[in-house]
Design brief:
Length: 356
């Protein structure tokens, strides 16, 4: 393991530790039962199979979105339309489930693939606009999210809405299309295995294939990529399409695994959570499930803490913000990083001299 990787791991661990310490201090000041609150935060998700199941259930969509953003950000393109891709993926999966007539085993697959396809179309729009018009992809991708949410609300209200239901929800998704629980006593569903497979193949794609290498080179240094003969426009578009496809799949899997009707009328926030996950995972899809589990565990613990004590769940939002600030701060531990690099260089030099 080289110095950069060691340093990244150290900085991430210290960032998490410092953020948790600050959160504990806030709890000590604000709570009437600080010890109980901290224990609930740290151990609450482990007190029953159902609670731990909540962690895994929360982790599933975070893994999909984290891998999607990792691939998009690997090309150094800040496309934020993944939120819309996830939302539309859930809508499309519901529409296909309610309208497509397919053999029982193929219906869930068709729903998820259709969700992925339309998810890719969402992230493709800002990417193509950037290529054709040199528009600001940050602005255009943000606007795409609003377009998708309002479009989804229209489809839900005027096409999919069940008039007999007492709320704004779609018709019920047939039971044979939904993902059944794979662990008794929890709602952990087949989506967990799909999410882990997506993380693994995302890693293989980025680090073991030619196109993945080209995407990473483009993200690190676009000028070098151009001079090396890499088709920058092609690899950028591929990264955006694939990232959007994974986001859309995540929306479809979430609907089939955790809901029996489509009821999303506002932003769910998974696109923003994905940025946190990607930052912790250092844009490596293989690390995304671990980062997703960590964030899911914290949020589940915060929920249990809020129920058992007077500490609000927003304390975890503070923790997340501190972690991100420290992880992305270039100067945080920068002197230690220089010492690590210098030490490694001296060791390599002494090994060379000994070999001579």
């Amino acid at each position: 393991m080289n110095s950069n990787k060691k340093f990244d791991i150290l900085r991430t661990v210290l960032s998490i530790g410092i953020a948790l310490l600050i959160s504990f201090l806030i709890i000590l000041i604000a709570s009437d039962e600080p010890v109980k609150a901290i224990l609930e935060l740290l151990t609450g998700p482990l007190k029953s199979a159902r609670r731990f199941g909540n962690v895994i259930e929360t982790m599933i969509p975070l893994t999909f979105t984290g891998v999607g953003v990792s691939i998009m950000f690997a090309a150094n393109q800040i496309n934020l339309a993944g939120e819309g891709s996830f939302h539309l993926g859930g809508l499309v999966a519901t529409f296909v489930a309610l309208n497509a007539t397919l053999p029982m085993g193929l219906s869930p697959l068709a729903c998820v693939l259709a969700a992925g396809f339309f998810g890719a179309m969402v992230t493709a729009v800002p990417a193509v606009m950037k290529i054709k018009t040199d528009s600001d992809v940050l602005v255009s991708s943000l606007m795409m999210n609003y377009i998708i949410i309002f479009f989804a609300n229209y489809v839900l209200n005027y096409i999919l809405r069940d008039p007999k239901a007492g709320a704004v929800v779609s018709y019920a998704i047939p039971a044979h299309i939904q993902f059944n629980a794979i662990i008794p006593g929890t709602r952990i569903h087949l989506g967990l295995l799909i999410a882990l497979a997506v993380a693994f193949f995302g890693y293989v794609f980025l680090y073991k294939t030619k196109i993945g290498y080209e995407i990473r080179v483009t993200g690190e240094n676009i000028d070098f990529a151009k001079y090396s003969g890499i088709n920058v426009l092609k690899v950028t578009l591929i990264s955006q399409l694939l990232g959007g496809f994974i986001f859309g799949m995540g929306g479809g899997v979430e609907i089939l695994g955790m809901y029996n009707r489509f009821s999303w009328t506002s932003s769910l926030g998974y696109g923003w959570d994905a940025i946190i996950i990607t930052t912790l995972a250092k844009k490596n899809p293989l690390y995304v499930p671990f980062a997703a589990f960590f964030l899911a565990y914290l949020r589940t613990g915060a929920s249990k803490m809020s129920i058992a004590t007077n500490v609000p769940t927003e304390i975890i939002t503070v923790t997340q913000g501190i972690i991100i600030l420290l992880v992305v701060a270039e100067q945080f531990l920068s002197k230690y990083k220089h010492k690590m690099i210098a030490k490694e260089a001296k060791l390599s030099l002494s090994n060379i001299k000994e070999a001579e």
